[in-house]
Specification:
Elements: H1 8-28, H2 42-52, E1 57-61, H3 73-81, E2 85-89, H4 97-122, H5 129-145, H6 150-155, H7 159-183
Antiparallel strand pairs: 1-2
Helix pairs in contact: 1-4, 1-7, 4-5, 5-7
């Protein structure tokens, strides 16, 4: 059996590599440039939101509190007229990159630990590189990309954005698989 303490090096190295790969994909390559669009009257919408004095959180319009309300003619009319939107509001102020970067790295470590646990329980010492690559790559790709599709299915997130995010997840999965295959205990 392969234990987690035997896999500390691939856990850390894969988390670091995924962290830097994410930076390259989001900040260097033009891959995600088309993910966001400018509103025609951004200032007007921002003013309208400010006037409502809503705090950070996740909002929907039109809002429906339960399944019964989905049959309400007023709600149905709002759905017909639109807009239909989900809105995530963050705290005002400049982006807090430090905290987000730390949280991202911690997530990378957690993914690597869970995948290391799975691989350690299913693969033995000396398992061939390709078998480690398959198991770790599949699990890691699922961790980074598996749940990305629900916002496109249920909330209208553009499919093209979801596909690009899933490609990121596949790249992270392949990188992690390569590190684990390379550093797997012999």
């Amino acid at each position: 059996m392969v234990t987690l303490d035997m896999l500390w090096l691939p856990i850390v190295i894969s988390a670091v590599i995924v962290f830097f790969a994410s930076f390259v994909m989001w900040m260097v390559l033009p891959f995600h440039k088309a993910d966001w669009k400018r509103l025609p009257d951004e200032a007007g919408l921002a003013d309208a939101i400010r006037k409502q004095k809503v705090g950070p959180g996740q909002y929907a319009t039109p809002f429906c509190g339960d399944a019964k309300a989905m049959k309400d003619p007023v709600f149905l009319k709002k759905m017909e007229e639109g807009p239909i939107a989900t809105l995530i509001l963050k705290p005002a102020g400049p982006p807090r990159m430090g905290g987000a970067l730390v949280q991202s790295f911690i997530y990378n470590i957690l993914v690597a630990v869970v995948v290391a646990y799975l691989a350690g329980r299913t693969l033995g010492v000396g398992t061939h590189y390709l078998q480690v690559f398959r198991v770790v790559g599949t699990a890691t790709t699922l961790a980074y990309a598996g749940a990305l599709f629900y916002p496109s299915i249920w909330m209208g997130k553009p499919w093209a954005v979801t596909i690009r995010d899933a490609v990121d997840g596949l790249v992270y999965g392949l990188l992690t698989a390569g590190v684990f295959g390379w550093l797997w205990p012999r």
